Amino acid sequence: MPAGFAEKDTIALRKRRRLRIRRKIHGTAQRPRLSVFRSNKHIYAQLIDDDLGRTITQAASRNIGIKGSCKTVEAAKQVGKALAESAKEAGVEEIVFDRGGYIYHGRVQALADGAREGGLRF
Q: Residue 109's domain is classified under what CATH number?
């Protein structure tokens, strides 16, 4: 196997899963799509209205000033709560969850739980 093959294959497989999920999920103004991106250091989430193609609100672990490590499950939960607060200000209460090809486990699940605790329904 060539060097780096497994890494590129993993990224390609996640992109395929993401596209397969996106065929089934569509966000509207009344019920936007909560899109999640997870990097090695941070986690990002945004509410997207797919009809207009615009972002309603967003939150990220690098923006909310989390002390200590930003890679933790606790940081993802705080991002979910921050996103729920800004969504409430924008008048959004119900969303569609787009896990972005990631397994619903760990940081992705913690972000969803934080958003639920913040008052979003999905």
A: 3.30.420.100
Structural domain includes residue 15: yes
Sheet containing 54-60, strands listed edge to edge, beginning at the edge strand earlier in sequence: 54-60, 43-49, 33-38, 96-98
pLDDT tens series, the chain, 122 aa: 455 556 678 889 999 999 999 999 999 989 999 999 999 889 999 999 999 999 999 999 988 776 655 668 999 999 999 999 999 999 999 999 999 999 999 999 999 999 999 999 99
In a domain, 122, yes or no: no
Domain count, the chain: 1
| 101 domain residue, yes or no | yes
Q: What's this model's pTM, rounded to 2 decimal places?
A: 0.86
Which domain does 75 fall in, by range?
5-117
